[in-house]
Design brief:
The chain is α/β, with parallel strands linked by helices. A 7-stranded mixed beta sheet has the order 3-2-1-4-5-7-6, with helices on both faces.
Length: 191
């Protein structure tokens, strides 16, 4: 697994071979960033953005954001094995000053949010079998920790039947193999 673009392009990211975690495949990651960068539907720039990477695993999404010029990434992960690899990746790439790692469950993080933290891009990659993430999205929507121009990206299994209406405005869906990537925001009054 490698960083696709930016200042760290080509650098290796360690990953975890495990049945409980799955890395964001390079093709899915590259395609997701192409949408972020080139879609007319998205009004958020990676440059100097504040990133929230939930269920971050080994950090491939948040690290890619930093490589492409993001100001800071907050990684939220509670799997000990994934945390160990995430910390190794952050240290090896020398991006500690731009990274914050929170060793906690996503629901715990969301229950004690600081309203002063505002995020431009929120990436959600919950286990495919989990559907509690919809409640977590609702908590974020109601917390107002996102900037006016923001994007929420949710990585799910293509066959998932998640109902996000009333939670977020999904304006674009891309399918890659068994993955589905949903792009949206919390501005429910926009199309």
């Amino acid at each position: 697994m490698r960083i696709v673009s930016g200042s760290l392009k080509g650098k290796k990211i360690n990953f975890l071979k495990s049945t409980t975690t799955r890395p964001l495949r390079d093709f899915v990651k590259e395609s997701t960033f192409n949408v972020i960068t080139h879609s007319n539907l998205i009004n958020v720039s990676l440059e100097n953005s504040n990133i929230l990477d939930l269920y971050s695993g080994v950090g491939s999404f948040g690290i890619e954001c930093l490589s492409r010029g993001a100001k800071k990434t907050t990684f939220v992960e509670n799997n000990n094995n994934a945390l160990m690899v995430l910390k190794e990746n952050i240290t090896q790439l020398k991006i500690e000053k731009k990274s914050m790692i929170l060793e906690t469950k996503v629901i715990s993080f969301l229950s004690r949010l600081k309203k002063s933290d505002k995020y431009d891009i929120i990436f959600f990659d919950p286990p495919f079998s989990e559907n509690f993430f919809i409640n977590e999205l609702n908590m974020i929507k109601n917390s107002n920790i996102y900037n006016k121009n923001h994007i929420v990206i949710v990585h799910r299994e293509k066959k998932s039947q998640d109902n996000l209406s009333g939670v977020m405005n999904v304006f674009l869906t891309r399918n890659y193999g068994r993955s589905s990537v949903l792009f949206g925001n919390f501005n429910l009054n926009t199309v």
